[in-house]
Design brief:
This protein is α/β, with parallel strands linked by helices. The protein folds into two domains: 249 residues, Aldolase class I (TIM Barrel); 74 residues. It has 15 helices and eight strands.
Length: 347
Amino acid sequence: MALSEYSKRLLGAYAEQPFLMAPMAGVTDPAYRIMCRRRGANLAYSEMVSVAGLAYASNKTWRLVLPADEEQQICVQLFGSKPDQFASAVAAVEERVGDRLSLIDINMACPARKVVTKGEGSALMRTPDLAEKIVEAAVGAAHVPVTVKIRKGFYAEDRNAATFAQMLEGAGAAAVAVHGRCATQLYTGQADWSVVDEVADAVEIPVIGSGDVFSAEDAAEHLRNSGASAVFIARGIYGNPWVFGDARALALDGIPVPARSSVERLDALREHLTLTHELLPLMSRARTYASWYLKGMPHAAAWRAQVVRCSTYEEFMALVDEIEHDVVACEAALAAGESVPPHPLEA
């Protein structure tokens, strides 16, 4: 099968930057996307968006779709189970997002119970006829590439990713992403990247590998050792928005991943908090991601206990100042061969 122009376009984008910011519910909002874009992420995805929510013109759902002013592009990931709603959603997204829409991605990988019980997400791997109709409906309505994210299978014994991907290719998908776990595993155990190779051998369209990419080194290794044309980075972005630029520099230019100082990471946290404050009515999300930035710092556990008590932008920013003062003092003591001073609240 000859590659479509859409597949060729994606291969060109992957050659430039093969490490993609994976869609993650509750994480890949405009603030986090911008943090990563400023540090090397080219293709970034929305959170998972319900086609049913778009059908009801929910403002809450549209907030998940629309890029911030600073964002030059967005990949929008849709989920659902009704082909006609996918066709309508694609048309609506194209109209609202315009030229900044890079592609539509269809989620057939989410293992969450509330999604699967509706026949959506990874449940579609058990209903290939319906999955095919969904892709055909989306492709028929789209003027951008349509891609699909799948898993190894729904149950461990299924392992039907390769044949499922062939069906998706035949239905018009321009690329397919494969997560190396079955749906019933959720995110436990290890991702099986051999299934990525099985899919790459079975289809002509580009394949994106996914699963257990926790660092730039992981990302570069998976790109080098698998049949994937690109690699999704999901949990590897936690507290590390530099991972995309670092992975690209390592994989394409052989440049080692630099160490990031505590002060540099705290400055990034301030930047992230400011973006959240400016772009989202969701400062509560900062309680989660702030803890990611603190990993490995002196008194990190004690500071995380303080983070969860913050509610406002001002409270978060004041706490980061306290943390930096403490971290600098602790690191200076360690450099001088002294013991770490007690946490300020314990002194």
